[in-house]
What we know:
alpha/beta, six-stranded parallel β-sheet
Amino acid sequence: xxxxxxxxxxxxxxxxxxxxxxxxxxxxxxxxxxxxxxxxxxxxxxxxxxxxxxxxxxxxxxxxxxxxxxxxxxxxxxxxxxxxxxxxxxxxxxxxxxxxxxxxxxxxxxxxxxxxxxxxxxxxxxxxxxxxxxxxxxxxxxxxxxxxxxxxxxxxxxxxxxxxxxxxxxxxxxxxxxxxxxxxxxxxxxxxxxxxxxxxxxxxxxxxxxxxxxxxxxxxxxxxxxxxxxxxxxxxxxxxxxxxxxxxxxxxxxxxxxxxxxxxxxxxxxxxxxxxxxxxxxxxxxxxxxxxxxxxxxxxxxxxxxxxxxxxxxxxxxxxxxxxxxxxxxxxxxxxxxxxxxxxxxxxxxxxxxxxxxxxxxxxxxxxxxxxxxxxxxxxxxxxxxxxxxxxxxxxxxxxxxxxxxxxxxxxxxxxxxxxxxxxxx
Length: 426
């Protein structure tokens, strides 16, 4: 979600060239494909999002700027359509279908998430069009792919997440509580990442062969990949994993990793210490906090120092190693309960020991670590004379510049510019 920030000093947008500079993308506006188009645009591709008359339905999704609903104030639309140009085409007319085909003839990627078969009904024939534009990468995103018995089954984000497995894998140790569906449009975001990866691989292939191809993204399959060992355990061993609070689902219960710190916030302790230096740090920290006399398993931590730490490969074979491992985890939990979540997180990080902190979304925009990696991005909205903070790159790329180059387009805002490509005045 965007947030009004006025004139702050967060990572301001720079219209950089990006690694996909020179790649032209035509995107049919959709819910399922918007995330993929944004990623391509923010990486420097020239993305034109094509909306139907009156604008795409995403413009009616709240929340809205200043709680004032309109086609130009949807924060959903703002977030998923940065770095794009926008035009309106009525694909039910011969003229606008011809315009779309003219645009595609000069483009590298066509991104669409229409119901399988719907473009055929409109007279947009993929095999015929790709035969005329042999280098075109056609990327389709749909709930179950473009073929198969489920291709026409109606879905929502919830049903996709549940059917593919992520919901089964997410929840709490207490199984009297229902599973948890991750928020934030995960089905479209996961599918979007796979669509971008598929498009990039297809572009590399085209560089070698000159041939375009059809990339068919199955959202159900893409989500299923995110279950990690959940699906794999069933397919290989016919065993079912169990949901666990804040950690991987497993066929057998594992030790908790989330600990409530002294200020009522949670930290995630992850892996216990492993090296001798890690255990020395834990012992010294217990001493500094005056907790050594009350920690019953201190001797196990001292044994870890003497034996040079604990290897993960020892845990299933050496009972003493397992006792030390558990003592290390318990020592970390003891420290966490005597500190604030922030003190705990920063203290373990300084000592080189794995620890995370459970932030609420607004914390991510002000956290010094997020700011240091450039996650909050200030995007000016020239149309209203205000600047807003947007979430930045999903990953920090060392050699591939990433930028939000522009706010989301208004309805049909770039008609004149885009139509100039196909020789129309707009």
